[in-house]
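Action item from last meeting closed. Structure (144 res):
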């Protein structure tokens, strides 16, 4: 049996618009990661980029369950001794709410060149406005 390889000309990239208002962070990230990889298409191939573009709006209104708002910590490291910084979900949400969704999706895609290429198709915005109206993104309901 031969492996099916989709042609680039066959694959039409679509744009999807997801409103994160009230959506649970992890469930939203799974949905976005699947669309970025192309797992929702019949031409999905694990080692090729067959996914679509995703625009996520209202990133500051995403929900986390349980006590994650205060207990979950995000760590950054500057490379210097003692250069670790820890921030809670509430602190990240106050400074850069786009980072919550971006990090969650980044953890769900491959950690290689393909994964870095897929992440360029993710656009996350704080409010309801976005600069991608010319691409006519189709609305997609966020999983709750």
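Sequence:
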């Amino acid at each position: 049996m031969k492996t099916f390889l989709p042609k680039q000309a066959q694959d039409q990239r679509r744009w999807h618009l997801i409103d994160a208002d009230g959506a649970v962070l992890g469930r939203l990230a799974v949905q976005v990661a699947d669309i970025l990889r192309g797992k929702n298409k019949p031409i999905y191939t694990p080692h090729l980029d067959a996914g679509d573009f995703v625009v996520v709006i209202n990133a500051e209104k995403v929900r986390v369950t349980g006590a994650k708002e205060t207990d979950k910590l995000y760590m950054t490291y500057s490379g210097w001794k003692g250069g670790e910084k820890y921030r809670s979900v509430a602190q990240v949400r106050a400074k850069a709410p786009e980072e919550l969704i971006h990090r969650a999706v980044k953890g769900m895609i491959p950690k290689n060149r393909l994964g870095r290429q897929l992440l360029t198709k993710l656009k996350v915005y704080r409010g309801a406005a976005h600069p991608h109206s010319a691409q006519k993104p189709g609305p997609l309901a966020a999983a709750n």
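Note appended to the action item: The longest strand covers residues 15-19.
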